[in-house]
Specification:
heterodimer; A: 135 residues; mainly alpha; 6 helices; 75% helix; 0% strand; B: 112 residues
Amino acid sequence: MKKIKNLMILHIILALFSVSGIFSKMAAMEELLSFKWIIYYAIVLFALFIYAIAWQQIIKQMPIVTAYANKAALVIWGIIWGFVVFKEKISVFKVIGAVIIIIGVYVVVTSDGEDDTFRDIDIKNNKGKGDDRVS
Amino acid sequence: MSPFHIIIYVFSVFISSVSQIILKTSANINYENRIKEYLNPRVIIAYGIFFIATFITIYAYKGIPLSVGPILETTGYLWVTLLGYFVLKEKISKRKITGLLIVIIGIIISCL
């Protein structure tokens, strides 16, 4: 039960973080360093900061592999927000590609133990210094 | 969607992967105290690069849809693995290579 709860918390964090992409895109549509641009960029940086802290907390509650694998959900959120906010088309290729990416990410992160790329990043994150952009 | 902006976005993912590797090399060093653990040249440079990367990402979004951003973001798995291999001399398993190829195929299909 606790596992499901942590997984839900992780997905709430990811969903909230995915919103920062909307503001990146909105900033891109403004003139560089204009008032609106600065506001949107500040929101992006603030979201990244909060997300970094939340991520460090959540990875203490679950295997790092689970967290990284679920992080691929950001790909889905990008497609959803693109459609909802910016009226972007959802093509069949995009959806199929997204599913393939998620499968690929799962294979990559579950390869840990055989090597240690992502495990070390876990250690780094637990030390509280992590940027986890790739993670 | 412009190929130029796709390359710019991927470049921003690449440099933030570099910053991650720098943080990782920093985490492997034992520092005298907590302050030095966080405020040392490596950590500062890493976050500096990361900051620049967020800037470049916004520029890249001028030419790509929002839906493509997170898709290109997954190239980070490739960069971190390659940098880990060349810089930190980490091994890459066959399974990881397979997974990375699947991710790359997925990215290409998504961008068609």
